[in-house]
Write a structure and sequence with these properties.
The protein is built from 15 helices and 3 strands. By secondary structure, it is mostly helical.
Amino acid sequence: MKLRLDKLGVVVALLAVYAAFFAPLMIFRPNRIVPGQGKSLWESLPPSTSISFVVVISVAILITLFKTPLYLRLSAAAAVLAGLAISVGSAASFLTPDGNTYARVSPASGAWLLMLAFALLAADAIARLRPTPVVRIALLAVSLAGIALVLSSGLWDGLSIIREYAGRADVFWQEAGKHVTLAIGSLIAAVVVGLPLGVLAHRVTSLRAGILNTLNFVQTIPSIALFGILIAPLGWIAINVPGAAAIGIRGIGAAPAFVALFLYSLLPVVANTVVGLEGVPREANEAARGVGMTGRQRLFGIELPLAMPVILTGIRIVLVQNIGLATIAALIGGGGFGVFVFQGVGQTAMDLVLLGAVPTVVLAFTAATVLDALVELNAPVGTRGKAA
């Protein structure tokens, strides 16, 4: 049997070769803010660990280069990613002098490129295998469980990002709660308002352009500018409306962040509701009308269920968007993971920046995967899997 090169595999292999053999795997810093010194894979790990990891990477590169079975490619990617997780933890212990609490060890470009290359390979293999929505959610759950297991094992305790977390554990979970509350709370509010507004825009065509154009205009306002615009009116409400301040409405803090995220969320919800309702087959409506269903019954029994995949796509867009935008809320005292991002920028401490950025990315990726699965589960049976 003649082996043929795989185009994506060649790109992954080149990235992996550069990352493993030419780029630094880890960065060692005497303390958290001074510039670090890059350490190669051979310098970062004990000899036995480095040899084992290189063997795993080399075998994975050979599997990746050629058009090999998808399950084999997925297994190779998983093996390298698992080996990388073990190696960065081992490197942190190996490079940190005994008893030194000031030194910081963090992944360098080589580690990040290895993760990118083999995560890309895994994503490509999963997409081409076309797993069912339930299987995709199961794969996500296994991945998150693996990360949780590594974190709980203490393997990564020597990494600088974990050291940053250890000194801020209570604050981290408080800000995580604020971040999730802002992202999901504003989404719920947008769905409660946006769905009826979308139905109205669909039913009353004379209002459609005005509603969508207004919401489009809101989307063009930069997030920081919108947060700033809301400070004055919300501050006035807090002062002049009895009870407003008592429920948390004020010029700075969570209130303007919540309102801004809510306003940004409306357009995808309303637009997708209109598109979804427009896509309902005319025959279905005529059949429902023929059996005597009222307009309300047709809406809730026929139109909204058939439009639900498109509506859920809008909700997915909103949730991923809000998880990212909630980071900016820290600039006006709204809390969230942005607190660590902006503290890290101010202190030139990149590991503190990562403490805010990494959970945000994980949350967004998890939300996108789960909602993609829900969209497919709600799609007509004949169309499932086509977008996988």
